[in-house]
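WARN retry 2 of 3 for item q-0093 after timeout on previous attempt; input resubmitted unchanged.
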Amino acid sequence: MAHNDIPKNVRRLILRQIESVQQVEILALLRADPDRVWAADEVSRRLHINATACAAWLQGFAAANLVDRIGDAYQHAARGPSVRAADDLVDCFARRRLAVIDAIYSKVS
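OK item q-0093 returned
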């Protein structure tokens, strides 16, 4: 599956914000239960992700308006262009997993 099979907004998000598949899994987890508020350590445990990396990624996502920060916890963001790109990434990952993985790990430094 070619990179051009991935929507432009998703490719742009990957280039700017996504360094690993684990980050996509975080976005997917928050999106799967959009009303739930997650502490970083809960996300880390649920996805078996290093706690320090998970917390840093969630903070970065909040700074980029991909998720909402509520106190010391995080929730799927309700709306906005960044959220649309994150949702499209999660959808694309579900349908074109290998293309997304390739796009993440083959991007130019």
